[in-house]
Write a structure and sequence with these properties.
Helix content: 55-70%
Radius of gyration: 16 Å
Number of helices: 7
Largest sheet: 2 strands, antiparallel
Distance between the termini: 49 Å
Order of helices and strands: HHHHEEHHH
CATH superfamily: Cytochrome c-like domain
Strand order of the largest sheet: 1-2
Strand content: under 5%
Structural class: mainly alpha
Shape: globular
CATH class: Mainly Alpha
Number of strands: 2
CATH architecture: Orthogonal Bundle
Length: about 110
């Protein structure tokens, strides 16, 4: 019984792990994340409306970037510009962008 529960828990964990299930291509991510730098790559950039400081995303974890972009795409996270960007991205695009951005230092994008 214990072995069955342990096996089920390991399988569930593997299926639920977005970073473990998908491999991103950072070279492709560099190319398709070009528009991200237009806001996220400018030091101290302020969004016009609503006004707030745009976060730097270079060096962020892959899992966070994947979750955030998917949440914008689904409408779970609300920001019109980011929702529009997310709606143009496939799942593979998202993991590729995340692989690239995670590999950058905190001083980039």
């Amino acid at each position: 019984m214990f072995k069955q529960l342990l096996s089920a828990a390991v399988l569930a964990g593997a299926l639920m792990s977005p970073a473990g299930a998908e491999q991103g291509d950072p070279d492709r991510g560099r190319v398709i994340s070009f528009t991200c730098a237009g806001c996220h790559g400018i030091p101290f950039h302020q969004n016009v409306y609503p006004t707030y400081s745009v976060p730097r995303i270079g060096g962020q974890t892959e899992g966070y970037i994947v979750a955030a972009l998917r949440a914008y795409r689904s409408g779970e996270r609300r920001h019109p510009t980011m929702q529009a960007q997310g709606n143009t991205l496939s799942d593979q695009d998202i993991v590729d962008i995340a692989a690239y951005l995670a590999g950058l230092g905190g001083n980039s994008e």
